[in-house]
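Hey,
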Amino acid sequence: MDSTNTHNVPFIDLHAQHAPIKDEIFRRWNQIYDETSFISGKWVEQFENRFANLLDVRYCVAVSNGTAALEIALRSLQISNLDEVIIPTNSFIATAEAVSNVGAVPVFVDCNEYSNLDVRQLSDALTPRTVGIIGVHLYGNPADFDEIESFAQRHGLWTLEDAAQGHLATYKNRNVGTLGTAAAFSFYPGKNLGATGEGGAITTNNPEIANLARMLRAHGETERYKSRIVGGNGRMTELIASALDVKLDHISEWTKKRQLNSTYYRSQLRDLNALALDEVQTDRLSCNHLFVAYGRQRELIRKNLLGKGVNTGLHYPVPIHLQDAYLHLGYKSGQFPEAERKAESLFSLPMYAELTEKQIDYVCAALADVIGSI
């Protein structure tokens, strides 16, 4: 008998994910405590190898969090002060923040109708200072990387995947994390592959980038107390790596369940004309990190849904070019109309592998009631 409480649907349910694997995680943690080997040991190495094998990429470098992964990846691409990097304005601010934190300048472009970087605007953003492009796999849907790579190669640029939301998504039968010069992953707890804390990783097929990333995460060291370059402390802990390694046994199944849940959502919402969804692109397979919808009077919709026990999220209500932190770059409201239009009406419905059809039925019925009453 399904005892799921459909009248209280959390936005994400980490308890449901962790309960079946808690004993295995704690067994490993007890072993780590007994061995007192806490930083960059056998579990980090095992996780790196297994994650690389899962993605079919040569190198994985585990780091402390997703923002560190972006910054270390950028430094590994040998970015210089005041270089320019093209990024979509429709993303979490960490995409731009990482560029700024390594001394470079983000140059924004609008998103397309699928919410990812609009490749038609790359030429307008190109300047003599441009060195690379960051394509974000937003909400788990892969960006147009064939077009991004083609443009980059024509102009001598590198490409970086912001794969923070892209675990196990595929683009034209290739895994996210293998599409660009390098990729940066986040394992923030709410991600599809979420850490018991913070974590991140860089993937690449380029040995020079991988070697630089390994040095940069550990004070530029090639061996203990011998630093070849100026680095920092971006290492992953054994506790984090060991738990992530447990989750690698389940991530493929969890991803399939997310994809089924997304399909079921779409079937239940197809006749709700007051609600819009980004369309599915048939040449790629989203890992459905988020299920984003668009509706008028978003705040009233969210408030009334919460009154019915349905928790929602906002991803992301302010495009990066309109954030206070980036007003100094001189971008104006109205400059990127697609991103701004989406930001005004988007909200995220509950999405996780453990979500049941009964819960989705309840969410969709509640949403129909709410929209019909306003």
